[in-house]
């Protein structure tokens, strides 16, 4: 067993991050994004933050877009990028944010868990606006610059839920499936301009979004958090652990590299085998 593997139903707390993973500094040699401007949405924490750190380590000038001003400033204070405090559900602002970007990482997202008959309609609309329409508007803003330079990268943070459904996540699953379609259309239109567009499809990642779901379900069912993780969230995942945000960021930075120039219109699972089941 390596540090990345946990036996099914392992007792104890949520497994810790894998040990011995190389530092960001050790990973920078093979991806050089010097001279590229990258916009990362939802950059203040979680996967977006890890992507921002990784892209900055690869030499990109990173624009950090998020609602969470203090979170952004904390990153900017570390020299990671330029903060852009923005509500991406304001679609005109989202399009403006995309202007001038060579790399777009569409990452900002939220989750609501409820059966369809109880799902608040205004929440359904917001989730589609933030997770489908905002990526469309960001990319709409960015493409003219990318086409002019003959190079661009669009990376869409989709999910296994862009490929598979789960009950009680109607808005999220609908949004991620929509994002998958949008990503493929951009891949087709962008190809002749040196612009690629791909989806990254993580399983459950160790972020606030998932930790909230674990806590909510544990409360709702009166069971310990470990049990929710093993028996609900990871029930369909052969590898019984959460993914670390940095592992997702590694795939994102690869998609932005020169080596990935022929990877286009793809949906790349980083899900411990969930979508193979
Ligand atoms: N965590 C997972 O298990 C997981 C799995 C698959 C896919 N994803 C996807 O990855 C992306 C990031 O998820 P995460 O787990 O890092 O979430 P997170 O909740 O940790 O971070 C999301 C970020 O988006 C920002 N945000 C939310 N609404 C916004 C708005 N209206 N305008 C601007 N910023 C806004 C938040 O402030 C936050 O910083 C999401 O699209 C999510 O669907 C997450």
Proper CATH architecture of the largest domain: 3-Layer(aba) Sandwich
Percent of residues in β-strands: 5-15%
Biggest beta sheet summary: 7 strands, parallel
CATH superfamily of the largest domain: NAD(P)-binding Rossmann-like Domain
Task: Identify low-pLDDT runs.
Answer: 1-22
Q: What is Rg?
A: 18 Å
| Ends apart, CA distance between termini | 21 Å
What overall geometry do the principal axes of the alpha carbons give? Answer: globular
Helix content, binned percent: 40-55%
Lateral arrangement of strands in the main beta sheet: 3-2-1-4-5-6-7
Write up what this structure looks like.
The chain is an alpha/beta fold and 277 residues long. The protein is built from nine helices and seven strands. Helix 6 (170-190) links the parallel strand 5 and strand 6. The protein is globular and about 55 Å long. The relative contact order is 0.16. It is an enzyme of class 1 (oxidoreductase). Residues 1-23 are annotated as: Disordered. Belongs to the short-chain dehydrogenases/reductases (SDR) family. InterPro entries: 3-OHbutyrate_DH, NAD(P)-bd_dom_sf, Sc_DH/Rdtase_CS, SDR, SDR_fam.
Topology overview:
Blueprint: H1 24-27, E1 37-41, H2 46-57, E2 61-66, H3 69-77, E3 82-85, H4 91-98, E4 103-106, H5 121-149, E5 152-157, H6 170-190, E6 195-202, H7 208-221, H8 225-233, H9 245-255, E7 267-270
Parallel strand pairs: 1-2, 1-4, 2-3, 4-5, 5-6, 6-7
Nicotinamide-adenine-dinucleotide is lined by residues 42, 44-48, 66-68, 86-89, 107-110, 130, 157, 159, 202, 204-205, 207-210.
Region (Disordered): 1-23
GO biological process, one term: monocarboxylic acid metabolic process
Protein name: 3-hydroxybutyrate dehydrogenase
